[in-house]
Each structure stands twice: as C-alpha cells, then as structure tokens.
C-alpha cells in the first residue's frame, strides 16, 4: 500500500503548530518519523507530504494536499496533537473508508490509556476536504493535558497509528 504521511505543522516560519506543555511540531515529528520508518519496514511505500518550509499556512496546506494527490497515495495520514483544554485522542475523517481507518487508529491509541474521543467529522479541514483519496487527521493527545503529556511515548503512538492504518 502507498501511504502519504504528513507530519503536521513542521513548516517554518509560518506553520509551527500549538505550544502547550510540549510543542506540537516536536511531538508530531517524533511520532511521524517513527511511523514512516515502521511502514517502510513493513514494505509499504511512503510519500512524505510535509514541505520543508513555506511562507504561509495556506500555502503549506496546499502543498501537502498537492503532494498526496500528485503521488496518488492510497491513504493520507496527517499526524497532530491537540491544543486547548481536554484529554484524549480523536481522529478526523470524512468518507466512509476514511472513517474505518480513523476508527482503527483512535481505538489503537486509546488502548495506550488515552481517553477515546472517537472519530470526528473532518469536513471543515482543508487537508481532508481536498485530498482525492481516503484521508485522516490524527490528534494523538492534548498538549495542555498533564495526563496526556505524561503518557506520551512516540514509539507507542507510532505503533498504534501503524497498526490502525495497516489493518483497516
């Protein structure tokens, strides 16, 4: 299978993500690099969809989607952590096939002890609206949640994401 992996934000200077107890772009990268390596170990093709730099958030989003669409990936996965108040993990999706993958991923992450906030409607998200393939946006936990940040382990979350997307 061919996966488009987007390590959320990580596109300075305009797209660096939320800062809470930890920095979102750092956690996204810790998890995303491991997801990519694990998928390659399983002999899947991986397309890296995160631009290295960009002048605006809108251009960063456009380039991520464009890369996935040009490469005709089978599943697009954008890796993030939530800002604001709350606890737990949730995954955004739009299509039925995306929702199946999202359900697998959110259930896998919840098995690590995170509150399962379920699959959410992602129809307002540019990344999910504009990709031509099934696409999910993973929120691995809340950056302002002491419990979520104490529980955070990049290896475990990467394993959960890979288990979820390779078995949907």
From TrEMBL:
This is N-acetylmuramoyl-L-alanine amidase. GO terms for biological process: peptidoglycan catabolic process. Residues 65-166 form the MurNAc-LAA domain. One of its GO terms (cellular component) is outer membrane-bounded periplasmic space. PANTHER family: AUTOLYSIN PH-RELATED (PTHR30404:SF8), N-ACETYLMURAMOYL-L-ALANINE AMIDASE (PTHR30404). SUPFAM superfamilies: Zn-dependent exopeptidases. One of its GO terms (molecular function) is N-acetylmuramoyl-L-alanine amidase activity. It holds the Pfam family Amidase_3. It comes from Clostridium estertheticum. It comes from the Bacteria. InterPro entries: MurNAc-LAA_cat (IPR002508), N-acetylmuramoyl_amidase_3 (IPR050695). The lineage of its organism: Bacteria, Bacillati, Bacillota, Clostridia, Eubacteriales.
């Amino acid at each position: 299978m061919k996966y488009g992996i987007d390590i959320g934000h990580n596109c300075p200077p305009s797209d660096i993500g939320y800062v809470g107890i930890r920095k979102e772009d750092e956690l996204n990268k810790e998890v995303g690099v491991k997801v990519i390596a694990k998928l390659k170990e399983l002999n899947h093709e991986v397309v890296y969809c995160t631009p290295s730099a960009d002048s605006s958030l809108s251009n960063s989003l456009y380039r991520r989607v464009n890369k996935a669409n040009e490469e005709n990936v089978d599943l697009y996965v954008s890796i993030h952590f939530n800002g604001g108040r709350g606890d737990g993990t949730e995954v955004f999706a739009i299509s039925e096939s995306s929702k199946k993958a999202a359900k697998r991923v959110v259930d896998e992450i919840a098995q690590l002890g995170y509150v399962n906030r379920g699959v959410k409607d992602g129809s307002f998200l540019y990344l999910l609206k504009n990709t031509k393939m099934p696409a999910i946006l993973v929120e691995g936990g809340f950056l302002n949640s002491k419990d979520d940040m104490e529980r955070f382990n990049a290896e475990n979350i990467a394993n959960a994401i890979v288990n979820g997307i390779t078995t949907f």
